[in-house]
Structures are given as C-alpha cells and as structure tokens.
C-alpha cells in the first residue's frame, strides 16, 4: 500500500490529469449523447466534437489550477494559445476513429443494425479516440502548455553554507 501511495505522490500531476480527464469524459458523453440522440442525430462526429470542445474548456481551468498547479510560468495568453492548439489536435485525434468507423468502415444504419452502430460509435469515439487523445494531451500539456521550469534543488536535512574566511593581508 505504501508503494502505491508513494507512486501516486510521485506522479501527482498525472493522477490529477486523469481525474480531470474523467470529469471531461463525463461532460463529453453527456453533451455528445444529448446532441446525438435529441438534437443532431444525423451528425455524430459533430456531436462528439462539440462535447469534446465543451469538456476542453472545463479541462483548461482544471489543468491550470489543479493538475499542473506547480507549473505554467508562461504568460497566460501564450499558455491559452498553446492549450487551444493542443486541444484542437486532441479533438481531431479523438474524432478520427469515429469518423473512420462511420464513414470509412460504413458502420452505420442501414449497413448495420442500430445497436451495432451505437456500439461501434462508442468503442471508436469515446474509448479508442479518447485513449489516443489522452496520451497526446498529457504529453503536450506537460511539454508545451505547462512546462516544468528549472526549480532550485531541494536538499534533505538542514542546509549549511560555507562562510568565506577573510584574512588580513600579511605585513
């Protein structure tokens, strides 16, 4: 148990990133299926992209204030611009498997049953797409958006400093 706790503390930003991602996943699915089932059933990729976009806005705030709270010394405008670029690539990576499933493989009604279509949509978009985008986003956020700055080295125990000895010139 101690080893698990030590590992979680050691990778605190990654754990927090995953929790933030879980919250984003719930937001994405709620918006995606709300739009897909009730508003724009003929545009599943658009519904997913809208859900991802809304979740991404929430994700920026959570990542900045919680996941990477010990980082991010960039000017906020620059940081937001980088976040938007990373997020757009993430949306494309997240949507690509669903697009391929629906329009490349033809896994949509009338080619397959409604159940097969929905299972294929869920596996390709929220499962495969999210996994691909999550790995990319964590890497890009840690590397470019919220980079770790050079911090002073922490030392265990009391810090001792040598005091230079000043000697009088010999006569």
Hey, roughly how much beta strand do the residues contain? under 5%
Class of secondary structure makeup: mainly alpha
Radius of gyration, whole Å:
24 Å
Order of helices and strands: HHHHH
Q: In total, how many domains does the architecture comprise?
A: 1
Look at the structure and give the mean pLDDT.
83
What does the main sheet amount to?
Answer: none
**Apparent shape:** elongated
Helical fraction: over 70%
Number of strands: 0
What does the model show?
This protein is mainly alpha-helical. The protein has one domain. 71% of the residues lie in helices and 0% in strands. It contains 5 helices and no strands. Helix 3 packs antiparallel against helix 4. It is elongated and about 100 Å long. The chain starts with a helix and ends in a 26-residue tail after the last helix.
